[in-house]
Amino acid sequence: xxxxxxxxxxxxxxxxxxxGAKNSSLPLLAAAMLVKGxxxxxxxxxxxxxxxxxxxxSYLGCRIRxxxxxxxxxxxxxxxxxxxxxxxxxxxxxxxFLGAIAARxxxxxxxxxxxxxxxxxxxxxxxxxxxQLGLRIKEGYGLLDCELRSKRxxxxxxxxxxxxxxxxxxxxxxxxxxxxxxxxxxAAQEPEIVALAEFLNQCGAKIYGAGxxxxxxxxxxxxxxxxxxxxxxxxxxxxxxxxxAATGGEVLLTDVLTDQLDSVFPVLDQMxxxxxxxxxxxxxxxxxxLKAVKPIRTMPYPGFPTDAQAPVMTVTALASGTSMFVxxxxxxxxxxxSELVRMGANIKVEGKxxxxxxxxxxxxxxxxxxxxxxxxxxxxxxxxxxxxTTISNLYHIDRGYxxxxxxxxxxxxxxxxxx
Length: 419
Prior knowledge:
25% strand; four-stranded mixed beta sheet; single chain
């Protein structure tokens, strides 16, 4: 089993370009199934989740070619509509393939998805939306056996009880080639939704209002080949900013769409970090001692992102004073807390609330990555701690961070991976 070994206490200093976004790449790869030809995605990150998505596409009949950060998907010969259980279990967001497969093949047979266990992350909104577009779904024995009522999805009005990102993506993909108009209300507004709509529109789709709470899709018969650049990963950017803040460092991140981080910058500012922000870059210099922050409440975009909660919590663990977090998106998103406590953090959790009493320093320990963002939080803690930290269960981290140890070592971090 691979592990990361970190000798902490060294400020991170330097410049780093941010990778492409995992949470944008995956729906784009799924949507590429609708193109009866080639799709070229640039700036696609080298991640295990992306590998898993490519395996699903290959199994379905797509030809995949990767060169560096460019992935070419030729979906002209898709000939299957089932996805094996082992491929579905490799990532939680594999459910986003359901709408694409059914739209292309008029049927789909998949099992329930896997990935990080963050408590209930039900797919009922996905199924509700696709059913309203005309998909018959039989659930049983861990499988979803699906068939279209007609040769195409049929447009409908769909109202979500919660602005689910994945369900919004699934419906957008399915509705892009549906017969008639689809209107989604209470849609997710994340930048990844906007990017998906922009990609599909480049292919000839007619999608309006992405990034707002109401999205309108006028279905088109076919989609054309295109090339598209994956947006930068805003959560990866937050992670590296937090690593610099926690270590007393000074970094410049490039390839960042900074307007997507407007809910995070005020928190770093409250901590005493000096920020200099342009449209595509952000500079951060940490203060001599970090300050506690006002209560942070995770919310759907444009609120504070749940994916940023764990990395930011690690920084507040070293701040002077008391900080509080309220997790409003996932029930089980504090699994990293017990591992941070092993490193000397003073954190108490009660239900959705975590109270962080800042300490002067953390110390190295042997810890386990609990999930993707919790694993990133432990890396930050190890970089800031005195002594040596070892982190196991790296498969969680590798799902969303491209060559994390190389990037951090490039900023001066004493970190390496070993078998």
